[in-house]
Design a protein that fits this description.
The chain has six helices and no strands. By secondary structure, it is mainly alpha-helical. It has two domains: about 80 residues, no CATH class; about 70 residues, no CATH class. Helix 2 runs antiparallel to helix 3, helix 4 runs antiparallel to helix 5 and helix 5 runs antiparallel to helix 6. The longest helix has 30 residues. The radius of gyration is 20 Å and the shape is flat. The relative contact order is 0.07.
Length: about 160
């Protein structure tokens, strides 16, 4: 008899969690569960770097997908997080992607101008960091026209 047959109601994710519990033991105490999360996440990074050796365009396509965000959202769902927490994470990711785009504008420009790899990487990362702090400061500032209550959580 399944939980559904017994008349027990499940909130979103509980059935998934019940299946995981049967597969991996109690997930909150299972090292196997954390190892699985680690290897799935690491596999994607290795896959992208290996594909880049053969086709930078295809690797860029895969890397541009929000795989890290997608995995984080999936892991949160499996861990039983509320939909509001997942929605809040998704919204914050959207806003924090914007300053990260600076990196992908500055790095190729500096490399094409003949600056070495490491200085270009350092300057691009610095420019991106400045943009992150500017965005976070804007959301912390009550005068920012796009300030929404949910963004106070950036500083948690």
């Amino acid at each position: 008899m399944t939980a559904v047959d017994s008349g027990n109601s499940f909130r979103a994710g509980q059935l998934d969690n019940a299946l995981l519990d049967k597969s991996f033991g109690h997930k909150k105490h299972s090292m196997l569960y954390y190892i699985l999360k680690f290897f799935v996440s690491a596999l994607i990074i290795v896959l992208v770097s290996e594909i880049a050796k053969r086709s930078s365009g295809f690797a860029a396509l895969i890397a541009s997908l929000p795989l890290t965000s997608l995995l984080a959202i999936i892991w949160l769902h499996i861990d039983g997080s509320e939909s509001t927490q997942i929605a809040e994470l998704s919204s914050q990711i959207f806003w924090l992607v914007l300053p990260s785009l600076v990196f992908f504008l500055v790095l190729p420009l500096l490399l094409q101008k003949g600056l070495g790899f490491w200085p270009s990487l350092a300057l691009s990362a610095t420019a991106t960091t400045v943009c992150y702090f500017t965005l976070l400061r804007c959301y912390a500032d009550s005068e920012c026209s796009y300030n929404h209550g949910s963004y106070r959580h950036f500083y948690r």
